[in-house]
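Page 37, continued from 36.
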C-alpha cells in the first residue's frame, strides 16, 4: 500500500468518524424532541412556495417589497445556516427553489430563537413570516414562527451544493437531489419531455394504452430477456424487451393510432448509453408508411426540444426540420472506399468486414453484413439528426419488404450525436412472410444467437385476421433526454440506475 493510499483511506475514515459523531448529536436532539412532544408533527400546511414568492417580488425594490408583502407560510429543507450571535440567516429549499430566511432573538424571543439555533442542515421546517430585502438586496423572509417538522439524522455532504462522487450520487439519488439543484432540473426537464411527447401524440388522435410487462414470449426486438416465474400458472414469463407485437395486435383490433410510454428490460451490459431497464415511446398508425412517421418524428422532436438548436457535449445540434436522410449503403460508401453499388455487394462487404476485423461469430449473414459495417464505420459520425434508411431484410424481421428491392425493407433509424434515438418501419402485415421470417430467426437462435426472435404463433394468427397497412416507431426516451439536457451518461437521466451491489 502506498503512502498516498494510506492518506486517502485515513481521510475517508476520519470523514466517516466525523459523520457518525454528528449522527449521535442529532439523535440526542431527537430524544429531546420525543420527550417534549410529537417529534414528527404533520399539522403544518404551507400556503406559498419559494418560487411563487420570488416570481411575485423578485423585481421589486426593498420599499415595494415591504409595502406589498403579506404573511406567508413556507415548508422545506434547510440547506444553509449562518449564525451571527443574536441573528441567524438560513436558506430554505422546497420543490420550487430556494429562499433566504432571517431570525432575530429580539423579535422572536429568547426561547424560540434558541430552538432555531439548535437546527441542523437538512432539517425540514415550516415557517411563517413577511418579506423584506436585506442590505445586500436579497429577498428574505423574516421569521415570525418556525416549527421543526422532521429532524434530519444524517448530515448533508459537507459541501452540500457539490456532492460530486458519481457512484454515491447514483446510489443515493435522494441526497443527490437535495445537494445538486442542476440534477433536479434535469429530471424536471425529463418530465416536460415525456409530457410533451404524450401531448403531441394525443393531439394527433393517438390513444395511450398499456400492454403486458410480463409476457409468455419475449418479442418485438432482438434482445436477451430477463426471465421470471409465475407460481400460480407454473410457467416462465419474460420481462418485455419491447411492446411492439402487442401494440400491433391492438391495430388489428381496430385501434388505428396507439402509443405507449413504456418500460423495457433487456438483459445486456451497462454503458454510458445502456441501462438494463429503460424507457421508450412506441407508436403505431394505420394507413401510413415509414416516410410519414419520419416527418412526424421531425415535428415531435423539434417541438419537445423547445428550440431549433441544442448544445450537447460541446456540439451544436440542429433540430430544425427536415432532418438529413441517407440510405445505409450511402452512409457506408461515404466512410469507406466502397461505392454505393459495392456497399450492397455481399462479397465486397465480407472483404471489408474482414478488413475491419468484425468477428465472424458476431456477424449477420449475406447482405445483413451491411448493418455490421455501418455500425463500425458510419454510425458514430452522424452528429446532426439524420434518418438512415435502406436496411437489409436480414436484420429487420418485423418490417415490410421494399416493393422495388426485396433485399431491403421500408425502415429507418434516427441517429443524433452518433447514437440511435429512434427506429421505425412500415410494418410487415403478410402473415406468411412473417412466419418465414420468424422461422429464420428460430434457425439463428438454434445456431447460438440468444438475441434472435422467438416464433410467436399467436402474433401470426393476429396477422391472419388482417393488419391494416401500418407504420410504427419507437423513440428511446433516456437517450433523447441525454441530448436535450446535455447529460453525458444515461445514469444521469435515470433516477435510480442499476449499479453493482454496494460493497462489491
Amino acid at each position: 500500500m502506498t503512502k498516498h493510499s494510506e492518506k486517502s483511506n485515513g481521510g475517508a475514515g476520519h470523514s466517516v468518524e466525523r459523520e457518525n459523531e454528528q449522527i449521535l448529536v442529532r439523535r440526542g436532539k431527537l430524544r429531546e424532541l420525543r420527550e417534549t412532544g410529537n417529534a414528527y408533527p404533520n399539522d403544518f400546511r404551507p400556503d406559498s412556495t419559494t418560487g411563487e414568492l420570488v416570481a411575485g417580488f423578485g423585481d421589486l425594490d426593498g420599499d415595494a417589497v415591504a409595502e406589498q408583502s403579506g404573511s406567508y407560510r413556507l415548508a422545506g429543507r434547510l440547506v444553509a445556516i449562518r449564525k451571527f450571535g443574536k441573528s441567524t440567516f438560513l436558506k430554505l429549499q422546497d420543490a420550487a427553489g430556494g429562499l433566504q430566511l432571517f431570525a432575530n432573538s429580539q423579535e422572536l424571543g429568547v426561547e424560540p430563537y434558541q430552538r432555531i439555533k439548535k437546527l441542523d442542515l437538512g432539517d425540514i421546517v415550516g415557517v411563517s413570516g413577511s418579506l423584506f430585502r436585506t442590505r445586500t438586496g436579497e429577498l428574505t423572509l423574516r421569521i415570525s414562527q418556525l416549527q421543526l417538522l422532521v429532524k434530519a439524522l444524517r448530515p448533508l455532504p459537507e459541501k452540500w451544493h457539490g456532492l460530486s462522487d458519481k457512484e454515491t450520487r447514483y446510489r443515493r439519488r435522494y441526497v443527490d437531489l437535495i445537494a445538486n439543484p442542476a440534477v433536479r432540473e434535469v429530471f424536471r426537464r425529463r418530465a416536460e419531455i415525456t409530457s410533451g411527447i404524450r401531448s403531441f401524440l394525443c393531439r394527433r388522435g393517438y390513444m395511450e394504452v398499456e400492454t403486458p410487462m410480463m409476457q409468455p414470449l419475449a418479442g418485438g426486438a432482438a434482445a436477451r430477456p430477463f426471465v421470471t416465474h409465475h407460481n400460480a400458472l407454473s410457467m416462465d414469463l419474460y420481462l418485455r424487451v419491447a411492446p411492439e407485437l402487442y401494440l400491433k395486435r391492438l391495430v388489428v383490433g381496430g385501434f388505428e393510432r396507439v402509443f405507449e410510454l413504456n418500460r423495457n428490460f433487456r438483459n445486456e451490459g451497462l454503458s454510458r448509453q445502456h441501462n438494463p431497464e429503460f424507457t421508450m415511446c412506441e407508436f403505431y398508425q394505420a394507413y401510413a408508411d415509414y416516410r410519414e412517421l419520419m416527418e412526424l418524428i421531425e415535428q415531435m422532436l423539434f417541438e419537445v426540444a423547445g428550440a431549433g438548436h441544442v448544445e450537447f457535449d460541446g456540439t451544436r445540434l440542429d433540430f430544425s426540420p427536415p432532418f438529413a436522410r441517407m440510405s445505409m449503403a450511402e452512409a457506408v460508401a461515404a466512410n469507406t472506399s466502397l461505392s454505393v453499388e459495392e456497399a450492397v455487394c455481399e462479397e465486397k462487404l465480407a472483404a471489408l468486414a474482414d478488413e475491419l476485423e468484425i468477428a465472424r461469430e458476431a456477424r449477420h449473414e449475406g447482405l445483413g453484413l451491411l448493418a455490421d459495417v455501418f455500425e463500425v464505420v458510419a454510425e458514430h459520425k452522424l452528429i446532426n439528426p439524420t434518418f438512415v434508411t435502406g436496411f437489409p431484410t436480414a436484420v429487420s424481421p418485423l418490417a415490410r419488404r421494399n416493393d422495388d428491392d426485396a433485399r431491403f425493407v421500408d425502415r429507418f433509424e434516427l441517429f443524433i450525436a452518433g447514437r440511435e434515438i429512434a427506429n421505425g418501419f412500415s410494418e410487415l402485415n403478410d402473415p406468411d412472410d412473417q412466419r418465414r421470417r420468424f422461422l429464420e430467426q428460430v434457425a439463428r437462435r438454434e445456431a447460438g444467437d440468444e438475441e434472435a426472435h422467438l416464433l410467436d404463433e399467436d402474433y401470426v394468427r393476429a396477422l391472419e385476421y388482417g393488419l391494416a397497412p401500418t407504420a410504427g416507431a419507437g423513440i428511446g426516451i433516456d437517450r433523447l433526454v441525454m441530448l436535450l439536457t446535455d447529460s453525458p451518461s444515461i445514469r444521469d437521466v435515470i433516477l435510480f440506475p442499476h449499479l453493482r451491489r454496494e460493497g462489491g
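The mean pLDDT is 93. Flag for discussion at group meeting. The longest helix spans residues 3-36.
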